[in-house]
Amino acid sequence: MTEEKIVVEVDEDLEDLIPGFLQNRNTDIGKLQQAADAGDFETLRSIGHSLKGVGGGYGFEKMSELGASIETAAKGEQLEEIKSCISALKNYLQNVEIKFV
Amino acid sequence: MGLAFCLTLVKSAWDTTLDRTKTNLQYDVLSIQQTISRNVLSANDVTNNVAAFVAASDDLTKDQFGVFAEDILSRYTHLDSINYFQFAGNEEIKKFPLLYQVSNDAGPVGPGQDIYLEFQFRAALDTAMATGKVVPSPLIEQHENSRQYWLFKAVDVTAETGQPGSEANGSVKGIVAVLVSPAKSVGHRAHDKALTITLYSDTVNLYGRTQLYASDEEQTEERWVIENFVEEESVQIPPYSIKISAHKPIYFKDLDFGLIFVSILLGGGILLLMYGLMNARRQQETELRERNKLIEQKVEEQTFELEVARDEAVKAVKMKSEFLASMSHEIRTPLNAIIGMSDLMSETTMNDEQTRYVSVFRKAGDALLTLVNDILDLSKIEAGQLVLENISFNLMEIVEEAADIYALKAADKHLEIITNIDTSVNIYRVGDPGRLKQVLLNLISNALKFTEKGQIVVSLKLPKDASDKDDVCMSVRDTGIGIPVTKLETIFESFTQADTSTTRRYGGTGLGLTICRHLVTLMNGQIWVESEEGKGSEFFVKVNLAQQDKPRVVPPDLTDKSILIVDSRLDNCLALEETLKYCGANCVNATTVKNCVNYLTNQQEPDIVIVDSHMLLDESMELKSAFSDELKQKTLVTISPSYMTRHQSVVERDGYRKILMKPLKRVELLDAIRSMYKRTSKEDVDKIIKPIADDNVAKSLHILLVEDNPDNRMLIRAYLKKTDHILDEAENGEIALDRFMSKKYDMVFMDIQMPVMDGHEATKRIRAWEQKNNKEKTPIIALTAHAIKEEIDKCIASGCDSHLGKPVKKATLLEAIQGIG
Predict the structure, then answer these.
(1) Which chain A residue has its CA at the smallest distance from B347's CA?
(2) Does B355 sit within 8 Å of A76, measured CB to CB?
(3) Among B345, B755, B754, B786, which Cα is nearest to A76's?
(4) A50 — contact with chain B (CB < 8 Å)?
């Protein structure tokens, strides 16, 4: 699964933004892992919500789905669920291949 | 008929009476005839007897003759006299002087008178002497009314030998003559009976028929002779015969009227009876007519009473509606608090069980709110409090969004909602988009409720019988249970479904269609339904919405491009065709896998393929292998929500480039096709995109973007990079308000969920500020995370003009800006 490339189509107008966007997301993952370790559900919820809001707009539907899952799980304080979502997100960002259209 | 019967009765009575009169007459005549013939015979006998007596007595004295004759005359009253003339001549000269006479009165002959000298009698005397038989003489008319005739008989010498007539001539001793009175023979009875009796005498070889007697002819006067009665009989005494003829006219007065009277009475009675019957019937009719008149009068009275009652009822309904409207409002306020609190509560930390409980009462609250809203709407309408908006909007968006909202619910039942927008309809209209959408949502929800399999087609088209250029027609067609003809009208009434049992089976408030009808009526439109039981229903809404002169989006130029549409639902193919043909494409439909494979193997490869995932991933996997890697780049896969989770990843993995969620929206479809061209040939893209972009940037706008998420702000900035619009950003509502008051903006994109000050509050403050400073209203477009009715309504209530669902797509964003410009 980790070997498979995930192709994501992104509007070519966004080409300049994508490197910064992806950098921001990697930062988010770091924050998420820290918060998860600390049991800071409020931070987890907030970042999850933010991921949910931005992913779709750029074409990363999967990112939005995972963000929504993290947000919901954070509300229910389901740490295991959150951790699996974070690793899924990490995996997704590593394997994503962007095609500008 | 009564008259005919009466006449027949009288006629038969008449005949019977006449017959009886005749029979009576016959009896009378018979007895009279017998009397006469007896008298005639007796006269003959007397003549014979006297002749025999004279012949037997050789020395007959006058006394002897007198005693004998008187005795006879006393017994036979019709004989007038008996005479004996003794032969006194010789061979040459015959003399018969009267010898004895016995007579009742003075006879026609005197004493000693020779009868033979009377020439009138000679022929008879000669015959008597020649034959030795009794011979009658012609009539002697002594005086009027007294006719008589003689009966002669010769007395022979050899009479005693008992051979009379053998030597008649020359041996005649004398002649016996008896004078007979025919009138007396007939007697008085005939006269009493008013009979006309005529006697004729016929003597052989002597003289012809002689009338002996004729009783007085009755004076016929002016009596009514009905019939003449004639009866004849003759007495034969050779050589002569007497014929008796009785004649009597039957007069009217002679008839026995008893029977006729009875028959006339009977006939009259029957006539009267029938007249009575007819009269009774006529009277009955008159009575009936009068009764009808009475009933009519009563009905009129009742109608009037009903009218009064109806007016009162209408008033009562209005009062009820006013009460409900205020009540509903009172209910809504605490209900909103309950729902709002449940929202806040779900934000707090809860365990699974608590989360589940909260979600249940949140859902129940939503359901209750829907019902209260329905009731509120209806009572507002009935109370005449509902005022329609009149703003410009995109009609296609309304239809597509309405279909979108129920797409997931439809997917749960494996139904598909298909939108079919007629390209000839100008989608920019003025009206009340919210209420129109409400009508559509109601109709779609209804269609979903009553449909188990098939599809629901939501159409927007020009009405067939458009009376005005601004008329548009929307319809929702399902393949559900249908509605019986008799219920087609009543289903629009409150709390009514086609069958009361369906309420239990399908649920629902029963207010939806009533609200629809009221709303459409308020818009001066029409709503109706056509249905066939078991096959489905189609609800139509025809409304008049003023058109707006906004430039339409230039569609991608697909002239001479061939497009293969693969979908098992023909309605989907037709809807796609409608849009694509408008762009100039040649479309081919394939509703089965076989058709599609056939086309792909036998025809030139199409420029674009639009295929439904359900067909592509058919069990046979036949179609999957028919798509080459090259063809996959030209393929657009549509996925219905029911297959989203199963098919999306498979299709993506298989290398298909473009995926669209159903129900398809025109803008998204055209975008997808544009982007496919962009990929295949850069030149084409410029051709297609440029003219639209040029249109979009015809005017440079100052736009304020209010959005807390920096990534999303960057996104929108990137989308507007190629346009001439000038974009300012604000991180939250407070900053936005500062910016807005310091600079003039042409439009605002307002995110709703933001820290510090959210979109609702910011919009309200902007509107208040505008009003205070007498500024024109700046278009504010809300950016909402969920395109649900409540959220949109809330935005509109805060003062936003329209909304865009997140994530925002480039095309929708540009179109929204174009709509303002």
Answers:
(1) A75
(2) yes
(3) B345
(4) yes
